[in-house]
Amino acid sequence: MKNITIVAVLILFSEFLHAQYSIKDTFANPLECTYMTRDAFIIWWDNDYDYSVEVDILLDQIIEYRNECLNELNMMDPPGVIDGYYQNIYLHGDGGYFDSNGWGNGVGTDSNGYPFYTMPYNLFNDIITVAHEIFHLYQYNSNSPGFAYSGDSQWYIEASANWYGARQDFTAERAFIEAESLVKLPQVPFWLSFDNFPNTYPENWQRYVHQYALALFLFYLTEEVGISPNVISEGFYMGLTETPQEYLYNQLGPILYRNTFMDWIASMTNDFDFITENQRVANESEWLTYADPDDDNEYTEVFDFNGTNGWFQPAFEDITNAWSYNTYKLENTNSTSYTFELNGDSNGTFGSPSYFQGKILVKNTDGSHMFYDLLMTDDTNGAKTIDVSSSDTEIYYIIGSMPTYFEEIDQEFQLFPYQIKISNVILDVSAFTTANFIKAYPNPIEDILRVELDAHAHEIEIELYSTIGHKIFAETYFNKKEIEIDFSHLNDGVNFLKVSTNKNSIIFKLLKK
After folding, report:
1. pLDDT at residue number 382
2. What is the Cα–Cα distance from 265 to 360, expressed in whole angstroms?
3. Is omega for the bond preceding 244 within 30 degrees of 0, making it cis?
4. Taking Cα atoms as reference points, which of 489, 423, 496, 491 lies closest to residue 462?
5. Helices 254-269 and 244-252: crossing angle, nearest 10°?
6. Alpha-carbon distance 76 to 70, whole Å?
7. Which of 368, 408, 440, 460 is the most exposed, having the fewest neighbouring CB atoms within 10 Å of its CB?
8. Do the Cβ atoms of 296 and 323 come closer than 8 Å?
9. Separation between Cα atoms, residue 351 and residue 314, nearest integer Å
């Protein structure tokens, strides 16, 4: 009798667990459809087919996704589940009962106001795509108006779902398959999406997938920078009015967020050095297959070793938007020094204050590379001089526009203009003349060189370079008008003397005999 009582209790308990959710469906016909339930999910399919083995495995997988979203990412169940109903998932695409709906792969809302997932039957083994759509179900109850699936926040709903899908296997070849668009469209605003697409933009693959491609930035935040995955997900349930881009900026803080943005775009410029080679090749192949080749903006301009020959401003269609960038390629053949300068406008075209940073990537023929940060004197101006060898054949100058501006005020995105200058310090022949504010004599010299300025300068930097670009002397002087330098130890021959103050810079061709 005791054993019978225990069995009865177990049966009742099992029925109670099964009964905690009820079926509420608007699409299936029980006479023509089969279903399987487990946990909070019900999966439907045409009863002419037998997907029971595949659905059994799928249910276990999506239950793991649910547990992760609820217990680790601090998200909420979709509304139907909260109300006590199974979450509906419909298999289709096999010519069966549900195909008359014309569904694709995605999440919709039924007449009860509950989300449902329509899944093509051939995606059973595509864990990244399935996880993407399941994540959408757990975004559905978001209480943050700033994270709406519209306007300048829509990108985040898709990018974070793509991030979650890729999270199931970050090494999968197609985990970040749209990413090539991020380097081919560097000038568009970070938050470009379907819903804020300007009328002036070409309608093509690369512009429409941009919002999905930004999963790569979220991956960079969690896997390279090391922020908690919770930061990506919790914003949906914090009652925020700020956009996702402003939320991330505030979570990391201005300095870390801006530096991370610059490091990310520099690493993408360096052949996506933080993903696998198989992924990089697959991404490039995807671009070649689907992209419009006339809308390739990877390099704003390409210069030879002479540099820009003065100040250069990008064409109107290439000017940076908010939280975007431009990349300039410099093809080098010499051992020399280059000075990179940036002069940004104080405000964008709608009046918002600008903020720029610059970064330089130098790639050597031996496969090595170096990054250099532009030394910014304020929010919009900076410079950096670097020495390179003849083996440093590829140099990239990256300008990042990162204003404290996170939501567009006009359908035509705000632009943040600037100018750059790249000067070959040694070969800048336009500077091989004597300026009226600096004199250097005698020339030729035997031992002592005298440098005279027309007024006291707070800081004077004097550098001497060989004809092959090797720096052989560098010294900084303060509050001087006259300077004497002993060059008696120099070998005979031609060198180049650079004299710089906080206002001017000049290069002399100097002969030692």
Report:
1. 95
2. 11
3. no
4. 496
5. 110
6. 6
7. 368
8. no
9. 19
> What 8-state DSSP symbol labels residue 491?
P
- The encoded tokens of residue 510 equal 């100097």
Pick out the chain residues at pLDDT < 70: 1-19, 426-437, 467-469
Q: Which residues does 262 contact at the CB level (< 8 Å), separation at least 6?
A: 357, 359, 373, 398, 400, 402
Of 418, 420, 433, nearest in space to 338 by CA: 420
pLDDT for the residue 407: 95
Report CA dihedral (444, 450, 456, 457) to the nearest 10 degrees.
60
Q: Supply the pLDDT for residue 17.
A: 41
pLDDT at site 467:
66
pTM: 0.82
- d(CA 397, CA 389) in angstroms, rounded, equals 17
pLDDT, tens only, 407-434 = 998 888 999 999 999 998 765 433 333 4
Alpha-carbon span 398 to 20, nearest angstrom: 57
Which tokens go with 496? 């180049």
Q: For residues 387 and 68, what is the distance between their CA atoms, to the nearest angstrom?
A: 50
> Which token pair is 467?
């004809």
DSSP line for 24-35 = --SS--TTTEEE
Residues with Cβ within 8 Å of 457's Cβ and at least 6 positions away in sequence, in order, are 479, 480, 481, 501, 502, 503
Q: Which pLDDT score is estimated for 432?
A: 37
CA-based radius of gyration for the chain: 31
